[in-house]
Amino acid sequence: MRLEGEHRRSIARTADGKGARILDQRRLPWEIVWVELRSAADAERAIREMWTRGAPLIGATSAYGFAMALAEDGSDAALDAAYHLLAEARPTAVNLRWALDEVAKAVRPLPAAMRGEAAFARADAICDEDVALNRAIGAHGLQLLRDLHARNPGRTLNILTHCNPGWLATVDYGTATASIYLAQDEGLPVHVWVDETRPRNQGALLTAFELAGHGVPHTVIADNTGGLLMQRGEVDLVIVGTDRVTANGDVCNKIGTYLKALAAHDNGVPFYVALPYTTFDPMTPTGADVPIEERDPDELALLSGPGANGQTTVRVTASPAYNPAFDVTPARLVTGFITERGLIAPAALSS
Ligand SMILES: CSC[C@@H](O)[C@@H](O)C(=O)COP(=O)(O)O
Which residues does the record give as substrate binding sites (predicted)? Predict the structure, then answer.
């Protein structure tokens, strides 16, 4: 199953302009189901329950949710209530608060009756900008891939990624995947090792779906496999996305990213983080200061998927489970940040 078109747009305004349309990512890759969000409460639920996810897309969804609330009631009280409702939907991705602040900044000076339309316009602009940012990140990452390939032109370039840093996590292109899509489009031989990304399997379900849709050769691996592949020289570089990079360059991303960075460091494999400026958080000093989301242990204890008679769920442990959703990779393990402005060394952030 695939979605066609250069611009796949994982979020857009509904036809009547009063809501937002998202893909229900809980059902991918088995079914493509678009859902209409009609209120801030709908948007908050979709973010909290991960119908929609990925740092930039969470930001875009919250912006539309905020706009829906303001279209209904543009008063200061309604503005503050919607801001807080949405800001608390998920704690780790800084893009959520960034997008809400952008909308609030745009509408606060306006009379209540004008705030709804202005908020929708700002949300649209946030989405358009996200596409442009990812496209620019992709262009810089592509140059990096070309340079690495030129060192060993006879070989396929093996890239390892974690979680879903793709167009499903953004409005289009993705952060880490943008350069991979551009490389594939220009005929550079690439192959992607896709970490399954337990417990929610964003790699096995979402990244693999995206790469297949774009015709990129890829292989899903268990989360524990990357170290072995790196020792064997079968990974040329790692590119991941991020939910927040703090002032000192620490990288908060999906749980398991840190272990990949350690293995990459030990094996001399370059470890890159792709992100737009909206994911930098200069107000938070270090990764230790980032709130790490803890999710329902049943996400770990239960496995679900399509069975012979519809959706099947099985329990895979009889013991208590613990499910922190993100970890922190220290800046010292990061080779570079791939941004819309080019490559940035972690040391450059704190200098
Ligand atoms: C745009 S990519 C960066 C991250 O948002 C992505 O890798 C990630 O960790 C997403 O986590 P999720 O919990 O699925 O929202």
Answer: 53-55, 90, 202, 253-254
